[in-house]
Structure formats: structure tokens, C-alpha cells
From TrEMBL, chain A:
It holds the Pfam family Glycos_transf_2. It comes from Bhargavaea ginsengi. Signal peptide: none annotated. Residues 13-175 form the Glycosyltransferase 2-like domain. PANTHER family: RFBJ PROTEIN, UNDECAPRENYL-PHOSPHATE 4-DEOXY-4-FORMAMIDO-L-ARABINOSE TRANSFERASE-RELATED. This is Glycosyltransferase 2-like domain-containing protein.
From TrEMBL, chain B:
Keywords: Coiled coil, Membrane, Transmembrane, Transmembrane helix. Residues 80-107 form a coiled coil. It comes from Bhargavaea ginsengi. It comes from the Bacteria. The chain crosses the membrane at residues 6-22, 34-52, 58-81. This is DUF2304 domain-containing protein. The keyword Lyase does not apply.
Length: 243, 114
């Protein structure tokens, strides 16, 4: 069952949104445009207790599934809501997609493809497999490089872009995530977790834009705290797993 | 008044507050157990001068009643750790409820529009 190929998989795009009123409608319009190429695809926005008009804007798109969280859970809890929905509604593939316009809809084929073909259980859209036009600040790149080395050291998994939130997963992983998903800064931690569960992770090159609006969840002020916290959490993830 | 008697009185007051809170249903019985154990221990330490002096001698403490602070601090650490564990558990339950609520609401709205 593991390596089955899906010819026409049902796909759920999970878009977590917290105070994204500036960027959300642009992102949704691009996604609905993409849906024309792939009719078996649904778009699910999780409004993570936003204080602005994010929910109202999403309600303006009747074809979009809106999961409206009554309070703010943070990125991990919001994304997990999407995975739980995907699990209950029986989707074959789920894709995480940022609300802020960083991710490129044309790359959806690139990361859904390998999962649909059964080549891997999770496919991450990476900025660094091949050289792309992405240019983050030197600090950001140093941070990403640091996590790449740390994850490689702890799990033997080579991931060039461990903080990328653009990823597609298959049914097996949807079920795992709906039971257990790390809460605060989940992207790097998830890699260790899946590796422990013996899941196959691959990367594909994607383009990423700078943010279209709103605020990044990671400000420079928080980044040192972020590095320390994520380091600790992935080391813990490795320790509790044993293997 | 010696510090030992003073702390004994404080412990007795705390004990009464704990028991009274349980009686009024403000504090759940299972959460009161740790507090009651703390009160009994601290009460015993404060009142038994012989014991605390022996222990001070054994641990090489110059002023034995200062052991009361040490034990008080240790108990507080245990209590706070216990609290963070309970908060984590509550947080997990709250996250789960919030997520299920949003999904149920969605299903409910779908039914409504059909």
C-alpha cells in the first residue's frame, strides 16, 4: 500500500492565517486559479483567532473551506487543525501553504508530484536545492544553514531548507500529524519526528517571494530566542524518540 | 518569637486555608494532596527543634532554622513543576477542543446550507 501511485489524488491545501488581511485574498485568488488545473483540490484556510478581518475576507470566497479557530493556537495548532480536517474528510494529500504570498502556486505541481507518485511521504519545497533568486538576510541564511547541519547531525536526514513551511504530505503522514504535531516552531521539529517514524522526506526546488504584506511571525528580535528554542526542541525530539 | 514558632503558625494557617478551600470546592481534592503533604512536613520541621538541630548538624548548617528556607524552597520548586505539568496537560486539552470546535462548526454550517 505504501508505494502506491495516485493518478488523481484528492488534495487539501492548508493555509494557516493569523492577521493576514492584507495578503490573504491575493493568495486565495492564486490558489483558486490553480484549482482550475487540478479540480480535485480544495483550499482550506485556518483562521488562527485573528484580530483583523481575515475571517470575513475568507468568507467572501464560498469555495474556500474556512476553519475559524475561536482563539489563537499558534502556527503548530493552526496547521494541525488542517491536518485533522484532511484526516476526517479523507484527503489523499495535504499541502501546507503560507497565507502571506511567499509561496508560489506554480510550484504546487513540483511538490505534490513526488508524493502522488509514491516517491516520498513528505516533499519539502526548498529554496536551496538549486540556486534560486531567493536572497534572505545573511543572518537568516546563517540560521537556516545552522538548522540544516543540526538536523543532519541528529537524524542523518539531509534537508537544505528545514524551516520551509511549503510541504506536501501523503495520507500516512496526515494521520500521524492529526494525532501529534509540534506546537510552536514546528517545521524543523517535524523533520526529526517523521524521520523517527521512518518516513521518506525529499526536497524539490521552489521559488519563494518576499512577504506580500502583514508581519512575519519571526522578528529579528525574536530570532535568537527562536534558534535556542528550536535547538532545544529538536534535541528533545531526538532524545525522547531514542532511535 | 523564634522563627521556628513563627513558621509553624504560618503553616497551620496555610493548612486551614487548604482544608477550607477543599471543603468549599475551590480546590480539587487531588490537587490538595501535595499541599497537605507540604504543610505536614513544614509543620514538623518548624516545631521539632531537636530534629532540625540534628539535621543541621548532619548537613553542616551553622544556623539550623535556615533549613526551613531550604525545604520551603524545595517544596516550592516541586509545586511549580507540578503546576507547569498540569498547565501543559490543560493546554493540550484546550488546543484539541479548539480544533475540534472549528471543524464541527464547519460541518454544522455545511449542513445548514444544504
Amino acid at each position: 500500500m505504501k508505494h502506491t501511485q495516485l493518478s488523481d489524488p484528492s488534495v487539501l491545501i492548508i493555509v494557516p492565517a493569523y492577521n493576514e488581511e492584507e495578503a490573504i485574498s491575493g493568495t486565495i485568488m492564486k490558489l483558486t486559479q490553480f484549482k482550475k488545473q487540478m479540480p480535485n483540490l480544495d483550499i482550506c484556510v485556518i483562521n488562527d483567532g485573528s484580530k483583523d478581518n481575515t475571517a470575513e475576507i475568507v468568507r467572501g470566497f464560498p469555495e474556500v473551506i474556512l476553519l475559524d479557530l475561536p482563539n489563537n493556537l499558534g502556527i503548530g495548532g493552526a496547521v494541525q487543525t488542517g491536518y485533522k480536517y484532511a484526516d476526517q474528510a479523507g484527503y489523499d494529500i495535504a499541502v501546507q501553504f503560507d497565507a502571506d504570498g511567499q509561496h508560489n502556486v506554480d510550484d504546487l505541481h513540483t511538490i505534490i508530484g513526488p508524493v502522488a507518485a509514491g516517491e516520498c511521504d513528505m516533499c519539502i519545497g526548498s529554496r536551496f536545492v538549486e540556486k534560486t533568486e531567493y536572497s534572505g538576510s545573511p543572518f537568516r541564511r546563517a540560521g537556516i544553514f545552522y538548522f540544516e547541519r543540526l538536523i543532519h547531525l541528529l537524524s542523518g536526514q539531509k534537508v537544505t531548507d528545514p524551516t520551509s513551511g511549503f510541504r506536501a504530505v501523503n495520507r500516512d503522514v496526515i494521520e500521524l500529524f492529526s494525532i501529534n504535531y509540534p506546537s510552536d516552531y514546528p517545521e524543523p521539529e517535524v523533520i526529526i519526528y517523521l524521520r523517527r517514524k521512518k518516513k521518506r522526506i525529499e526536497e524539490r526546488t521552489v521559488l519563494m517571494h518576499s512577504r506580500q504584506g502583514g508581519e512575519s511571525s519571526i522578528t529579528p528580535f525574536k530570532s535568537v530566542y527562536y534558534m535556542a528554542k528550536v535547538t532545544l526542541s529538536i534535541v528533545m525530539q531526538r532524545l525522547v524518540g531514542g532511535a | 518569637m523564634e522563627v521556628t514558632y513563627f513558621s509553624f503558625i504560618l503553616v497551620v494557617i496555610l493548612f486551614i486555608v487548604v482544608i477550607e478551600s477543599v471543603r468549599r470546592g475551590i480546590l480539587e481534592t487531588k490537587y490538595s494532596l501535595l499541599w497537605i503533604i507540604v504543610c505536614l512536613f513544614m509543620g514538623f520541621f518548624s516545631i521539632s527543634e531537636r530534629f532540625i538541630n540534628k539535621l543541621g548538624e548532619f548537613l553542616g548548617v551553622f544556623y539550623p532554622p535556615s533549613l526551613l528556607f531550604l525545604f520551603g524552597l524545595l517544596f516550592i520548586i516541586v509545586l511549580v513543576f507540578d503546576l507547569t505539568r498540569r498547565i501543559s496537560k490543560l493546554n493540550k486539552a484546550l488546543t484539541n477542543l479548539t480544533q475540534e470546535y472549528a471543524i464541527m462548526k464547519k460541518k454544522f454550517e455545511e449542513k445548514d446550507t444544504d
